[in-house]
Amino acid sequence: MERPASPPSLTALERLVQERPLPRHVGIIMDGNGRWAEMRGLPRMEGHREGSTSVREVTRCARRVGLKALTLYAFSSQNWARPAEEVAALMDLLREYLESEREEILDNGIRLNAIGEVDKLPRFVKDPLDRLRAESANNTGMVLTLALSYGGREELLQAARRVAEAASRGELSPENLDGQTFESYLWTHDLPAVDLVVRTSGEQRMSNFLLWQMAYAELCFSEVLWPDFRTEAFLRCLAQYQQRERRFGLTSAQVKREDSQRAKA
Ligand code: FPP
């Protein structure tokens, strides 16, 4: 009798993921820190703290498998309205992260980037953030973007405002505004297209994350809470992505024809 195939080991899974085409850019909505802590009778902040260990593990894994861009939704425009002590503790944690990960980021060829209204961050976060951005600016291994004080609508609004300003100065005529030009006004203008968005904790919504950029992104909703979302859970999302057929509005037959033409060329 045939034995059911056992699931691949972690290293085998990692190898499988590395062998297939990777998404150019992965965005992650890191959700479930609060619930993770509450389930253990701990203050919510402990969930965020454990979540920063997941940030480290997932970043390491992304770099190892050869991902070129990873964007983490670390603090939304709407998160400012959380209880003041939670906001303050998150800011402390971000500062700690920027200090403790500095060496690893620099040693591993990672460029640290940030999107969002970063000028709203307190100086004790903004200063080390700017320093690490500058220090890592020439790294080309992977770009790690922290979405901080970030909102997709806020990003689109600032882009629309700047487009209107350029038009009123006569530098841009409305009929020449196409998708590519508009994208150059987004905070993500220097990042590759987002191919995959992951959300942890079983919630299935986008919460104002990369609204323009996710137009054709594949979505992966994981039941795992962010503090428990480590290498294996991340690899499973990448493997799931690699099983998807991306159609961009075409039919499946058209996509297959294009793929075989590309393979022959
Ligand atoms: C959402 O979970 C998570 C956040 C608002 C903060 C994310 C922050 C971290 C993962 C740690 C710090 C980040 C870095 C880059 C070091 P939630 O609090 O809404 O969870 P809940 O839905 O269970 O309440």
TrEMBL record:
* Binding residue positions for substrate: G32, N33, G34, R35, W36, R44, H48, W80, R82, R199, R205, M206, S207
Give the EC number(s) listed in the UniProt record: 2.5.1.-
- CDD domains from the xrefs? Cis_IPPS (cd00475)
What PROSITE patterns does this protein's entry cite? UPP_SYNTHASE
Q: Which residues take part in binding Mg(2+)?
A: D31, E218
InterPro entries in the record: UPP_synth-like, UPP_synth-like_CS, UPP_synth-like_sf
Highest taxon, organism lineage: Bacteria
Which is a GO BP term held by this UniProt record? polyprenol biosynthetic process
Q: Which residues form a coiled coil?
A: none
* Name of the protein described by the UniProt record: Isoprenyl transferase
Q: Which organism is it from?
A: Cystobacter ferrugineus
